[in-house]
Amino acid sequence: MQRFLVSLIFLFSTFLSTIFGDEWKIIYLASFPRSGNHWVRFLVEEATHIATSSVYRDRDFFHLPTLFPWGGYSTDHGYQGHCRYPTKNDPILLKTHYPFFSDKRNLGPKAAICLIRHPIDAFWSFHSYQQRYQQRGKKVSKINERQLIKFIIGWRMFYEFWEKQPGVLFIRYEDLQENTRWQLCCILQAAGFSFESADIERAVAKYPPQGTPLKHMNCYDVQALEMMKRELSDLLIRYNYDL
After folding, report:
1. Is residue 35 part of a domain?
2. Full-model pTM
3. H-type helices in the chain, by residue range?
4. Which of 65, 86, 76 is nearest to 23 (CA)?
5. pLDDT per residue over 200-231, tens digit each?
6. 3-state SS string over 105-168?
């Protein structure tokens, strides 16, 4: 698996070298909502001390109201306020949930790192996140059939879109949890950041993995699990997931 990832990173780096001239070196950090995008941005900023960006003004972490020249929003000098803003000599990690959320931008020919999280955890985490804003203080309800169908359609649409794009490196959230140091190295190398082993150790020590895979399994009934398995079986097999 590690040898395969190294080969992917080499191909990804070759792709980067062909598309960047004097333009900003934008690498999309693409993910279905609640699949680890913020965690990766925290890790990258701590390892590189270069601020990351988003195509949206995220409400969880205050992003400044003005677009930066590379076309993204950023927090004030990064999440912790200790990062410098990127220059044209630096890679720019730019969060997007496109096409699940439309950000009305022409994507490319841009490279991307795409995060994948098992739908059992991604769906429930996103559902809970939505309800925290819509029903403040109320208990999170089960995902109903209509919502689940919407999530299933959106999850498939999202990953089938990114599978068709050139120069995309796929990283499973569960692999990032299991071996954060190695996967963070892969992300930084693929994006073109300079770093040392001490940078990796510092980042992982500050933002270690939390939780366990499939921790939301008991939030679904049997019918919901069967629907996910039936409708997403081909993608689950492709990404080495099972129910």
Report:
1. yes
2. 0.87
3. 2-19, 37-48, 119-134, 145-163, 173-178, 180-191, 197-206, 222-238
4. 86
5. 999 999 999 999 999 999 999 999 999 999 99
6. CCCCCCEEEEEECCHHHHHHHHHHHHHHHHCCCCCCCCCCHHHHHHHHHHHHHHHHHHHCCCCE
What residues are paired with 29 via a beta bridge? 95, 113
Q: Which amino acid is residue 76, in one-letter code? A: D
In whole angstroms, give the CA distance from residue 24 to residue 22.
7
d(C-alpha 1, C-alpha 231), whole Å: 27
Q: Is residue 236 part of a domain?
A: no
Question: What is the rounded distance in angstroms from the CA atom of residue 55 to the CA atom of residue 121?
Answer: 24
Q: Give the structural domain span for 22.
A: 2-119+157-211
pLDDT < 70 positions in the chain: 1-22, 104-110, 133-139, 243
* AA identity, residue 22: D
Q: Are 203 and 43 in contact (CB under 8 A)?
A: yes
Domain CATH code at residue 162: 3.40.50
Burial class (CB in 10 A: 0-12, 13-18, 19+), 128: middle
* DSSP bridge partners of 74: none
